[in-house]
Give the backbone structure.
Amino acid sequence: MKRIPKTRPADSVRIFQPLAHQPAYKAVSEVMEKSIVSGQLKPGTALPAELELAAQFRVNRSTIREAIRQLEQEGLVERRGGKRLYVALPGLFDLAPRAARSLVLHQVTFQELWEVATVVEPEAARLAASRADEADLSELVANVATCQALLKGPRDKAAAARQAALDVEFHALVARASRNRSLMLAREPFSLLYLPALKLLFASLPRSAERNVQAHEIVVAALRKRDAKRAEEWMRKHLIDFRAGFVKAGLPMDAPIDMMTGERAAIGQGSARAA
């Protein structure tokens, strides 16, 4: 008869880990978050007052306030008309900053961001060619017109910053016109991180802003004609041109993105020449 090897008693072997203790407000916020994410609480649903929530969870009001503050930071609830709380749908700008911080912590380079942009942005333009409505096209035309007006004014840092913000807005409008929410969410973090670099580029190479606007004009014209191939092609050309300007300005493509977004944002400016 085969002998069964002896095993250590169950009470001497660790099978389970101790329960993690967490603050009450985190437990409350997690329960509320699950109700919102699961769809049990729909966007626009009014939440009970703090006193009522405290009674339901059997905690004090300060715990509820901390839980609500956390949910507000997540973009899951919002206040309307004073103090009344409502379930909200997180917007792009609620989610993107966290993803952007993660990219910075992982020391992602501008070359890596650019490689992703050359895939995502042309695809957004291609989709927008068949999906953009008149409202989308009107906003894009207005954006380009504002950029053109800026080119007629002084080429100072303020103008460069405004041009950079309008560039970010233009690409966001094209992405929105694609009607692909996954694409919109995917591109927003690197779009936010590009903003400081765009400011440096336009300040270092004033003519780059002109080339930028020209490319945008061609993309909008292609979208108006529902020419998906041309819209995609010119968006890709636009990004290749952006990289060329970046290199010409002496800005390092292989540097971690925090070198542009932090105190070292001026790197490369000393060697940049105005075109």
The CA atoms of residues 128 and 178 lie 4 Å apart. The two ends are 91 Å apart (CA to CA).
